[in-house]
Amino acid sequence: MKPLSRSVTGIDRSPIRFILDRAAAYPGAIHLEIGQPDFAVPAHVMEAVVNVTRHEYTGYTANAGMLALREAIVVKLARENDMRVTPENIIVTVGAMHAVYATMMTLLNPGDEILLPDPGYGNFNMAARLCQATPVFYPTVAERSFEPDLDVLETLVTERTKVLFINSPSNPTGAVFSRAMMRACLDFCRRHDLYLVSDETYDRLIYEGEHVSPAQWDDEGRVVTILTTSKTYAMTGWRVGYAVASKPIISAMTKIQEPMVSCVNTVAQHGAIAALLGPQDCVEAMRAEYRRRRDIAVELALENELSVSYPHGAFYMLVDISAQPKDSVAFCCDLLDAENVAAAPGLAFGERCDRYVRVSLCAKEEAIREGLPRLARYLQRAAEGQTVTETLSAQAAS
Q1: Span 44-277: which CATH code?
Q2: How far is residue 310 CA from its own chain's centroid?
Q3: For 36-94, what is each residue's pLDDT tens digit?
Q4: Going by C-beta distance under 8 Å and a sequence separation of 6 or more, which residues neighbour residue 339?
Q5: What is the pTM of this model?
Q6: Residue 136's beta-bridge partner residues?
């Protein structure tokens, strides 16, 4: 048999999914690895889709998404992102990752370079490689609050660089880029004639600071903004995201939507309309609870002598595991064996993140209160050179 495509065989599966699958064999495992909101979908959204399935047409929609949904997105963008657009500037996608991939397919030719954050969500790298583009990673470090270093970015630009990709609030760091940084990123792209792709998946989950969409200052059509209903409304499985860009970019993305997915699930699109135009107090309630969990997690980390990032947005926290010798994947496997705790390996977010594991604050308070001390306990034993077997024996003896 002839070999499979190098685009597919040349990428690895996400270590997060590896740990998630592995944890399925551990009854009672504490799940801190996955970014899956634990809230119910808002009642008014559920009521809307029930009514739709009984009374409305649920066949194919326009490739770019239902006009009514794109009009609802126009309202949302004006209300929350200082963006004034038309429905023709919007395409509805199968979640934010589909928007990311379709954007890269539209902007990048094989061999083009795209500047990606490190640490950054590993699927960004996978999507770029599937497009046969070349990812070039720029560091975001704790000492700079995980914001980009523009001086370093300047050194990475070549004649093949075409896109700067940013993500605020950030997965996995929880960084929220300042207004000045967003302007600086747009100015950087203007200077070097680059597209700016701004992933704003967690735009409503801000605990300190403000969310700023750089597209509000874009008068050239070089910014693509990616948003979703998934995290904001606990609608991850509904798969309704969207991209906002100039009409030529959206027209090109709509063209490739047909062979990729045809259109987004019609019933889910009706649910997204209800989410965006309906009561927003549910969003504030979820945001407040995530912030409370963030505060609990940081306090527990201090009590247990863990060195962690301080997330100002999204719902993740990085825990430094560099005191022990293992890589983050091996550490997470052994943590699961020894303490029944599943965490996300930092390697999933880039090589610079291999000294960390990511903890998701989507977990219930009890899981956070139980899981973080267990992680700290195992980290201390691993730092002392104790094996998993020795750890289990010590636990049995106590």
Answers
A1: 3.40.640.10
A2: 17
A3: 999 999 999 999 999 999 988 889 999 999 999 999 999 999 999 999 999 999 999 99
A4: 374, 375, 377, 378, 391
A5: 0.94
A6: 115
* DSSP 3-state of 16: helix
Q: Considering only CA atoms, which of 110, 276, 101 is closest in space to residue 197?
A: 101
Taking the domains of the chain in order of start, what are their residue ranges? Answer: 6-40+282-397, 44-277
Helix (H, G, I), strand (E, B) or coil at 204: coil
Which residues are registered as beta bridge partners of 357? 319, 345
What order do you get walking across the sheet with 113-118 strand by strand?
Answer: 90-93, 241-244, 223-228, 195-199, 161-167, 113-118, 134-139
Cα–Cα dist 155/152, whole Å: 5
Can you spell out the DSSP letters for 354-398?
A: TTEEEEETTS-HHHHHHHHHHHHHHHHHHHTT--HHHHHHHHHH-
Query: How far, in Å, CA of 253 to CA of 225, rounded?
Result: 13
| Token pair belonging to 219 | 């008068």
Query: Angle between the 388-397 and 365-383 helix axes, to the nearest 10 degrees?
Result: 120
Nearest to 210 by CA among 80, 75, 78: 80
Name the DSSP letter for residue 312: S
Residue 260's pLDDT is 93
Query: Which residue reads 């590896």 in tokens?
Result: 18
- Dist CA 104 CA 98 (whole Å): 10
Nearest to 38 by CA among 216, 236, 275: 236
Class of domain 6-40+282-397 as given by CATH: alpha beta
